[in-house]
From TrEMBL:
UniProt domain RNase III: residue ranges: 1-131
Alphabetically ordered keywords of this record: Hydrolase, Membrane, Transmembrane, Transmembrane helix
A molecular function GO annotation: ribonuclease III activity
GO process annotations (BP): RNA processing
CDD domains: RIBOc (cd00593)
UniProt protein name: RNase III domain-containing protein
Top-level taxonomy: Eukaryota, Metazoa, Spiralia, Gnathifera, Rotifera
Gene3D superfamilies: Ribonuclease III domain
Length: 234
């Protein structure tokens, strides 16, 4: 797996399509030795459609009611939430595509359009490489790279309060996302998710110490009360 594939979280079965997604048209015109025989523009066209579909799907499933129920807001979110300027920023800051884009020597540093086109081409390449029955793969890659751009449009994460499996105390509860809990209920028992509770636990000695302190405090209170009563009487 290459460094780029590692950051993407996806390993290409067809390395040629990855090479094509990284090949700018200028590299072919210059006969760059690493260039694919086809440039990335057709893959970028596919990737643009995949990106819009993935964002629209994610917003529809997870967006706030005012976003999901309003086609104008849904269209606005889908069309404008990941503009080319943001794609270019993601390409540079998260993927460091300047190290991977195959381009002519005239392009010492990639332009914003080159970054954005390469990002879309990579999305298109993944969508075609993973197969029609593996759409979740491309959805996961896009969510990993882009989901921080549309957090304000999403519903708050609904949680369920569950008792910790690690302690018998009365107050040992943890919050688990509802979607994760419901998904977990469909698993066989041997595969059930165990969510660790990292809050400090009281030992038996600590509990005993607290009981002893409580007894001393009670005895002290009763002693003071007895002295006050005797003072009043005598």
């Amino acid at each position: 797996m290459t460094d780029l594939e590692h950051v993407l979280g996806y390993q290409f079965k067809n390395k040629d399509i990855l090479q094509q997604s990284l090949t700018h048209a200028s590299a072919i015109h210059e006969n760059h030795p690493k260039a694919s025989y086809q440039h990335q523009s057709s893959l970028a066209f596919v990737g643009d459609a995949v990106l819009k579909y993935a964002v629209a799907r994610y917003l529809f499933l997870n967006g706030k009611d005012q976003v999901v129920e309003n086609s104008v807001e849904l269209h606005k979110g889908t069309q404008t939430i990941i503009p080319n300027a943001i794609l270019a920023k993601i390409a540079h800051e998260k993927l460091h595509l300047e190290q991977h884009i195959i381009r002519s020597n005239a392009h010492v540093a990639p332009t914003k359009n080159m970054y954005a086109d390469c990002m879309e081409a990579i999305f298109g390449a993944i969508a075609l490489d993973c197969g029609a029955d593996q759409q979740k793969v491309i959805f996961d890659v896009i969510e990993k790279l882009c989901s921080d751009r549309y957090q304000t449009l999403l519903k708050p994460i609904e949680t369920i309060r569950l008792k910790s499996a690690y302690d018998d105390g009365e107050e040992d509860y943890i919050n688990v996302p509802r979607s994760l809990f419901l998904h977990d209920q469909a698993r066989p028992f041997s595969q059930k998710l165990i969510v660790p509770d990292n809050s400090p636990k009281r030992t038996h000695w600590q509990t005993l110490g607290q009981v002893i302190l409580w007894l001393f405090a009670t005895c002290g209170f009763l002693t003071i009360l007895w002295l006050i009563v005797n003072f009043i009487i005598f």
